[in-house]
Amino acid sequence: MATTTPIAETRTAGQGETPGADGTVTAGKTVTAAAAHAARIEHVSKSFAGPAGQQLVLDDISLDVAPGEFVTLLGASGCGKSTLLNLVAGLDRPTAGTVTTDGRPALMFQEHALFPWLSAGKNIELALKLRGVPKSERRGKAEELLELVRLKGAYGKRVHELSGGMRQRVAMARALAQESQLLLMDEPFAALDAITRDVLHDELTRIWRETKLSVLFVTHNVGEAVRLAERVVLLSSRPGRVAREWTVGIPHPRRIEDTAVAELSVEITEELRGEIRRHGQH
Ligand SMILES: Nc1ncnc2c1ncn2[C@@H]1O[C@H](COP(=O)(O)OP(=O)(O)OP(=O)(O)O)[C@@H](O)[C@H]1O
Description:
Rossmann fold, 29% strand, binds adenosine-5'-triphosphate
């Protein structure tokens, strides 16, 4: 029997629409079973005012992320990946088009942005508090989340006592504390060394499979995109458009050096090089 689940669908206002105080238009919506999309980007364009007038950064982008899907957004530096992610996050508004998400997404960036004066556990508890979790439940939930990111026992550790990889694990736990259906990640592992990054790729894949979250992951690292995603979306530059998409049917666990991963990475790199030759890098 089909279940009816009320969800809050958050849509970022396009030009000509009036957003609420937080910059979004929120429509309470009742749908049958799960939402059809974790994120829906429809004909989105974005311009910024620059010294030479309006600069068109994103041009008519349409892209869906299905519930439970892992999509990587790949492209040359400056092609507009972060701009698009910010629009999905509701941090900015499109110049044209609409962005719809299944609830408010959780965010994770290259910089962990943890509060250094709080312990790992208290950083997570703060996210739980903002979500309205009662005080009596926060400690237990924070410990569970630390266990999920394999940091059992790190509850009382201060940020300066943690390695770069551990900080990103805490940042991941804090993002998961929001219990969003959609996790937006902007190069979260770019500042880590190759070995730590490789380990965190495995962890993220495990957590994604366990939680069945939808993930939209921005990177300019082709190997990372292929290692993680079910679908890789390549953006062109000047302005950013969807240049090509690949469905990655390679079973997990994947390794960068696996033949299928390496072959697809070579194919995508060639395409990316072509994009850079055609449009330059900014
Ligand atoms: N708030 C802003 N005001 C003006 N221009 C902006 C703003 N945000 C981004 N841009 C411009 O938009 C373009 C795309 O930037 P964006 O950061 O989205 O690219 P990116 O693909 O994420 O790059 P990278 O991989 O280097 O992080 C750049 O030319 C940037 O200068």
